[in-house]
User: What shape does this take?
Amino acid sequence: MRPVPTLPSMLLPLVLLSGPAAAQLAPPSTQPAFAPAAAALACEAYSAAPMIEAHLFFGRNIGADVGVSDRDWADFLDGEVTPRFPNGLTVIDASGHWRDSETGRLIREPSKVLTLLAEGGPATLSLIREIVESYKERFHQQSVGLAIRPVCVSF
Assistant: This one.
C-alpha cells in the first residue's frame, strides 16, 4: 500500500524547483519571479504570504575611522529607508569583515544589518537599489552587501 502524501510533502518538490534550480532550467524569458506560483501555494498551506527577505549590510567606516556616527545612521534610516518601507524593518548592530578591492587588505568595521520583508516586485527591488546607492554616495562606500531570498511571511 502506497502512503498518501500530505499537502506540504506534495508541495516540497514544487518549492524546491521554484528557486535557483528552476531559474537554471527555465529559458531566460520565463525565469520565475521571487514569489512563483509554487511558493505561493506553499505559503498558503501555512497561512502566510509570499514575500522577499532582503538583508542589507552597511559598513560604518569611512577610510580607517568610524565615519558613520549613530546620529548619521539614524538620519539615514529616518530619511532614506523608513519612507520607502514604512511598514517596518529590523536593524541589528554587527561587526563586518571584508576585503578592500583597492588595497587587498582585510577590513574590520562596525556595521549595521538591515532586514526588510516586502513584496518581491520590481518596485520593491528598485526601492532597495535606491537605498544602496544613497548610502554609498552619502558615506563614500565601495559597496553595500545585499542578500535577497523568497520567504513565506505571516504576522
Observations:
- The radius of gyration is 19 Å.
